[in-house]
Amino acid sequence: xxxxxxxxxxxxxxxxxxxxxxxxxxxxxxxxxxxxxxxxxxxxxxxxxxxxxxxxxxxxxxxxxxxxxxxxxxxxxxxxxxxxxxxxxxxxxxxxxxxxxxxxxxxxxxxxxxxxxxxxxxxxxxxxxxxxxxxxxxxxxxxxxxxxxxxxxxxxxxxxxxxxxxxxxxxxxxxxxxxxxxxxxxxxxxxxxxxxxxxxxxxxxxxxxxxxxxxxxxxxxxxxxxxxxxxxxxxxxxxxxxxxxxxxxxxxxxxxxxxxxxxxxxxxxxxxxxxxxxxxxxxxxxxxxxxxxxxxxx
Length: 298
Ligand code: NAD
Hints:
The active site is at residue 171. This is NAD-binding protein. The chain has 2 domains: 3-162, Rossmann fold, CATH 3.40.50.720; 169-290, N-(1-d-carboxylethyl)-l-norvaline Dehydrogenase, domain 2 (Orthogonal Bundle). 48% of the residues lie in helices and 12% in strands. It has 13 helices and 9 strands. The protein has helices at residues 13-22, 34-42, 51-55, 68-76, 81-84, 99-111, 124-129, 141-151, 166-194, 199-206, 214-219, 241-257, 263-277, and strands at 3-7, 26-30, 46-47, 60-63, 90-93, 115-118, 121-122, 133-137, 155-160. β1 (3-7), α1 (13-22) and β2 form a beta-alpha-beta unit. α1 (13-22) runs parallel beside α2, α9 crosses α13 (263-277) and α12 (241-257) packs antiparallel against α13 (263-277). 47% of the residues are buried. The model has no long low-confidence stretch (mean pLDDT 96). The protein binds nicotinamide-adenine-dinucleotide (NAD).
């Protein structure tokens, strides 16, 4: 069994690290948030006071952090991973970052002699809790092979996408598809309602017809139709609008860097940015269905 350092014990990192404890690993965790630390401790993670303490002597180090800048700071900062982990430690970042940050992690890790794997995830907090996440691994073959058994206790599916940054590339392309189809579901549901269709009866049709999709099945934007829909719970976030904006902006930046025009994704991004400007960034991204609502409320 391995000694694992885990930085970032939030909505995803908390339950994910707990599965590694269940699998018999010693997990030393660090987070800036005392509430996250307390929850992790209750799950058997040995909570420590610094990144240094979490990664010293580690066989592997996981990061699960909000944004590019947090990942860069945790890796490169004084007392950060590169300064403190043994060079034999395998480094895995499960955060959703942009391709540029992922490339930087690979290059700067390699320059210091570390093996790094981009290991983004799909499946949300439910997938993290039930250990059914999809892992998308990018890196050199030996590093990805070493990563696989470490991520398996948290995973339903593990994919080796090939070389460095191809895991994050798969994650961004997947989420672009998700958010563009979410807008289609939102507009189709609005049209159906405006033409007098009952939401449940229309859902029954679309879910076995060519309008079927993951957001239709999971986030149908009318209360009382799909149990998992945030519409039943005032749009409490299962995937926040702020996170959707982040992922889509990274996808668009990646498209721009490769000379690709992505007009549908740009429209979806604009919708999420409007919601954030109106103060709804913390609510579920399926709220786009209510925007703009006829009475101006959400
Ligand atoms: P979160 O905000 O709940 O957790 C991130 C944690 O990192 C927080 O507890 C925060 O205190 C901690 N942190 C920030 N800076 C730190 C530092 N310098 N040192 C130590 N800890 C620090 O976010 P989350 O929902 O768990 O998401 C984590 C990552 O996973 C993000 O990149 C997100 O895009 C990605 N992701 C999230 C979901 C989801 O549904 N929530 C799904 C797939 C991928």
